[in-house]
Amino acid sequence: MNILVVGSGGREHAIAWRCAAEGHKVWTAPGNPGIAAVAECVPLESQTPERYLEVANLINADLTIVGPEAPLVAGIVDLFESHGRKVFGPRREAAQLEGSKAFSKEFMARHGIPTARFQIFDSLAEARAALVRFELPVVLKADGLAAGKGVVIAKTRAEAEAALEGLFSGDLVGAAGSRVIIEDFWRGEEVSFIAICDQDRARALPPSQDHKAIFENDEGPNTGGMGAYSDDRILSGEQKEWILNNVILRTLEGMAAEGMPFRGFLYAGLMMTADGPKVLEYNVRLGDPETQALLYRMEGGFAETILAATEGRLDSARLRIGAGASACVVLAAAGYPGKVRSGDVIEGLDEVEGATVFHAGTRREGDRIVTAGGRVLGVTGRGESLRAALDAVYGAVRPIRFEGMQYRRDIGQKGLKRYTD
Question: Is there a contact between 184 and 139 (Cβ–Cβ < 8 Å)?
């Protein structure tokens, strides 16, 4: 197939890499220097659904896979379908599951999907007054898209009030914080559960676990994700079946009943509590950096499965998942997740062995690759066990260097405990 991948980050590099490995011709818009090694990158003067459609028409794309959430919320799928182009992702209305945290929480409440107690606020005064109704720590969420940075876990009343002021003023995440959700804090382990959906059927991918906080031991502010691993021990077979039936399929049924049939990647961010799985949030696309780890475990059938789901015949697809485990460690720029520094020269990429480096925030300057974003690279590897996968990844990180480089050295540690418990 001729495949167009929309986006320019590490997730899109992994998607392009996987599709190219399966023998397809891949274009990426706009792409990045790492993607250019496996696909044709199409530079864009504007990243709008209309411009993406022009690219799809230009290359006569058989299938378009949308990486990031913003084009989905902007209606790229509606536009492509109206022009007869095959594209994988939810339509604009269904993309509200991620585009609006308030919509998703109210949807979960309507359909009995387990989630935390919550309230939605349109003003700082109302939200501040309601804080007394929630125990500490408390979770504060921006309603709109915030690139993974719209969630604050406040441990004190003062932290909560400061976060509310930052959200409503726009200082933290801009317009995304003009509406805010306050919800109970759940204790447990987070799990990313992602399924490929064709409106009424779903194919679950292996479970994965993201690491949101910037520092080891889950300390510091949330980021877009500092690393992830995929290992079948994260969930039992019984837990996976329960989540598929009571979260994923129930969501598809609810969306269809409300006149918003859902086709695309459905990502349920879960907290595995003492009372069972609770949904923290939905995403309507593959996670980043979970994608890097997940696609590294695949051995074939990814693009064909996406095409089958797009055409409403998901049951016919044969997706091959390898045994063992995989992991991705994110190398972030100086200053991340706050104001980042760009333009630092990246060295050692040609010295990496035993793993693959997916580019996220990079650009080419002459014959050099430099930093150009908060999350710069995702070093990804695989092994017969989680320990072997992590050893491969951290060994591959060693030769890479750029000024101010930061990364977590404890990715996958929770998973390793499952081998000894």
Answer: yes
